[in-house]
What we know:
It is a single chain. By secondary structure, the chain is mostly helical. The protein has helices at about 5-20, 25-30, 40-50, 75-85, 90-100, 105-115; strands at about 25, 55-60, 65-70. The protein has a 3-stranded antiparallel beta sheet. It is elongated and about 50 Å long. The protein starts with 6 loop residues before the first helix and ends in an 8-residue tail after the last helix. The model has no long low-confidence stretch (mean pLDDT about 90).
Amino acid sequence: MKRGLGELESTIMDRMWAYHKPASVREVLEDLRQGREIAYTTVMTVMDKLHTKGLLKRKPVGRAYVYEPVASKEAYTAELMRDSLAASGNQAATLVHFLERLTPEEASALEAALQVFPPGSRRS
C-alpha cells in the first residue's frame, strides 16, 4: 500500500499541480520562500525523492532539471483511496463506513461521479 506524502512533499506536489506547467527547483524554492525559510538543497532533495517515487517526471534543461507531475492530483488521490480500500480486509464494510461519514457535499459529488461512471461500467 502506498503511503501518503510527508508535509513538505505534499506542499511541493500541491504547488506542482497548481502550476499546470513544468517547473524548476529554483521556481518551487522561490514560491515556497514566500511563506517559509527553506534551503535550495532541501527542495532539490524532496523533488528528487518525488521523482524516485514516480510522482514527478523530469527532463534536463541546461544544468538543472524541470519537473512536472506524472498524474493529476485527482488521479493520485484516487489511487490512494483504491490502495486503502484494497488493504482494508473487508471492502464492503469499509465502503459502508466511508458512506456513513460523507458530508452532504461529498454525497452530491459521489452521486455526480456515478452519473458519469455508473456502477458496472468498465474501461479497458
